[in-house]
Amino acid sequence: MLGFQFHATRPDQDRRTPFQRLLELFTEVVTHTSGDVEEAMEWMRALDDQHGLTEPDYTMDDFFEELKAKGYLREATESEGGNVQLGSRGEQHMRRRALDQIFGNLRKGTQGKHRSRERGQGDEPSEDRRPYRFGDKLDQVDFGASLRNAQIHHGPGAASGRGGFMLTEDDLVVEDREHRSTTATVLMIDISHSMILYGEDRITPAKKVAMALAELVMVKYPKDTLDIVVFGDDAWEVSIGDLPYLQVGPFHTNTVAGLERSMDILRRRKTPNRQIFMITDGKPSCLKEPDGYYKNSFGLDPYITGKCHNLARQCRKLGIPITTFMIATDPALQRFVSDFTEANGGRAFFTGLKGLGDTIFSDFERNRRGKAR
Predict the structure, then answer these.
(1) Sign, Cα dihedral of 236, 343, 181, 110
(2) Which of 130, 141, 178, 368 lies at a 20 to 30 A Cα distance from 171?
(3) Strand-strand pairing, 286-289 and 177-180
(4) Are 231 and 188 in contact (CB under 8 A)?
(5) First to last CA, the chain
(6) What's the predicted TM-score (pTM) here?
(7) Cα(350)–Cα(325) distance, rounded to whole angstroms?
(8) pLDDT of residue 201
(9) Burial of 39 (0-12, 13-18, 19+ CB in 10 A)
């Protein structure tokens, strides 16, 4: 019988070490501080004072020293400010924890394992079997299944060698190979000021999704590419290592610049399977013109939205679908996203922060089952 079993919390049965217990909390805190280790340490000390997180024989100082000894933290150089910063192991741990939080049901798969709708002479074996067809390769033949067919068709002694080996073309069974494809993805993240307005932290969930998606691609689909583009007044690329440190700025939302930068990246990718994921909570409100910036924060400006629609149509001609994850509930903005999606032929999700990761994962996996439109 499937289901859940519930029992009282038993701290005495928590077999994690003090370091492991504190590491989970520290990773969450340093994500919210955008990689500011000094601020995260202050938070940890305050939480310890309030809730008694440590023990007499393992203090918060012991925990911080162990973080350094194990490579989660490092002493920064003078040119970097001289403060304690995240080490490479700490950045990787943040990505893996985000992956476990959001995509916890995933298991590590083989390289480049993206199913496509095409069948035939692909490059990976599947569990499907079919009769032999002219042109099938010898290494596709399932000899065990073929011999069983021979015994069924020609009698028990057909494959025994008595009186000759009776195996005909009609007996042959082959593995139906699945085509596998690599995919180039650009994840666009809105870092405009509205991502922290109205008392709601929207950048941290978006950042967690980006870290989790990056780890997913590196672990499960290492032949794929994932590029991150952030956009405010302008748009620029950030590395996967920069993700823990993402912060919003006093920016408007230049969606056009983000799309143009994403298209430039995908034009350089050789795979025909290309796509854009865009996480945003606000309307496009900014353009970069030859003589400066054109900004309009009041309502939806047809001049700005028209350029967004034009780029959506260009992406459609290039075979680049755009999936928009809209984390706002304003009806006018949702209409804009619907029109934008129709122009591109892509998809749109009007999702809250809580389900953002699950929604992105589902669509990412869905798109990998076939060639991007």
Answers:
(1) positive
(2) 178
(3) unpaired
(4) yes
(5) 41
(6) 0.71
(7) 6
(8) 80
(9) middle
Find where tokens 């049901």 sit: 105
The dihedrals phi and psi of 286, each to the nearest 5 degrees, come to -155, 145
Local structure of 326: helix, strand or coil:
strand
Helices (H), 239-373: 255-267, 302-317, 331-344, 356-368
Q: How many CB atoms lie within 10 A of CB 87?
A: 18
| Residue pLDDT, tens place only, 212-241 | 888 888 887 888 999 999 999 999 999 999
The CATH superfamily holding the domain 182-368 is von Willebrand factor, type A domain (3.40.50.410)
* Type of residue found at 43: W
347-350 and 322-326: which strand pairing?
parallel
Q: Give the model confidence (pLDDT) of 44-61 as tens digits.
A: 999 999 999 998 999 999
161 pLDDT exceeds 80? no
Alpha-carbon distance of 60 to 51, in angstroms, equals: 13
237-254 pLDDT per residue, tens: 999 999 999 999 999 999
d(CA 21, CA 51): 14
Q: Which residue has the higher pLDDT, 206 or 42?
A: 42
**What angle in degrees, to the nearest 10, is found between the helix axes of 88-102 and 356-368?**
90
The CA distance from 368 to 212, in Å, is 17
Whether the CB-CB separation of 248 and 205 falls below 8 Å is answered with no
Distance of CA 146 to the CA centre of its chain: 42
DSSP assignment of 88-110, as one string? Answer: HHHHHHHHHHHHHHHSTT-----
